[in-house]
Amino acid sequence: MAIELFNNGRHVCVMFSDLVDDSASEAVQSNQFLIVTNGHGALIDPGGNMTYNALMIAMGKYFNFRELDLILASHQDPDIVASINKWLIGTQCKVMAPGVWERFLPHFCGVGNTGGRIIGIPDAGMNIALNDAVIKAIPAHFLHSEGNFQFYDVTSKILFSGDLGASLVPHELAGQPVTDFAAHVPAMESFHRRYMASSKACRFWASMVRNLDIEAIVPQHGRPFMGKVMVDTFIGWVETLQCGIDLLTQDNYRIP
Ligand SMILES: [Fe+2]
Ligand SMILES: [Fe+2]
Predict the structure, then answer these.
(1) Considering just the CA atoms, what is the radius of gyration of the chain in Å?
(2) How far is CA 28 from the centre of its chain?
(3) What letters, b where the CB count within 10 A reaches 16 and e where it falls short, cover 9-40?
């Protein structure tokens, strides 16, 4: 099911939360995103081979997939961009991904499919034009990948946060906004303690995004945070999070 996160008649943000086949229960639920503005389209974190066909069909209500302008990749993981070879063959799109992964992504692709079509986003981030709309690539390095961006859509004020904010919930719950933050924390906690790199990165990120006017934070797994109160609550939670190397001891490094 396509969930419209924003629609003002000429700019639409759509979330797909149920394209990973339920019966493939070994695969983690993931969300894919489409932004369409004035006849131009971008996919954010379109996923792997598992979601390619379903996404191509599901996005058809909003946009002819063959006209796709851009794929924006938060980082290099398989659930983010393992499908790019198919998108590169099926469309004329360019793929924008963290610069530190630019030369690794061609390993997902056939020889000769990537020439000039994978564009590295510099570490400092950048403003990306989609026709006359702007999508900001916001640095989120080490949250979790070493080279990692979130995408802030200036028109809708939605921050697509990649794996930060991810929750592991049943597939049918994934599209539903968080209503009780405290009750939702257990669905995020163990994921963030392991997959996020350190509290230092969390604090810098929180301090940065407090300067953004954010209406919703929408992660790549699980449930979105809608409205300023929930957004602020989530940022506060990240700011004090202990995770990754903060939690390591010698016990984590013992020869088996
Ligand atoms: Fe990831
Ligand atoms: Fe992910």
Answers:
(1) 17
(2) 14
(3) eebbbbbbbbbbeeeeeebebbbbbbbbbeeb
Compute the distance from residue 20 Cα to the ligand 2 centre, in Å: 13
Q: Rounded to whole angstroms, how far apart are CA atoms 218 and 96?
A: 19
Contacts of 79 (CB under 8 A, 6+ apart): 27, 28, 30, 45, 47, 48, 220
**Mean pLDDT (whole number) for 146-154:** 98
**Closest listed ligand to the CA of 219:** 2
State the Cα–Cα distance between residues 161 and 72, nearest whole angstrom: 12
Confidence of residue 26 (pLDDT cuts 50, 70, 90): confident
pLDDT tens track for 231-244: 999 999 999 999 99
What residues contact 174, with CB distance under 8 A and at least 6 apart? Answer: 17, 18, 29, 31, 221, 222, 223
| CA of 143, nearest ligand number | 1
The Å distance, Cα 74 to ligand 1 centre, comes to: 8
How many A from CA of 68 to the centre of ligand 1?
23
Peptide bond into 144 cis (omega under 30): yes
Q: State the pTM of this model.
A: 0.97
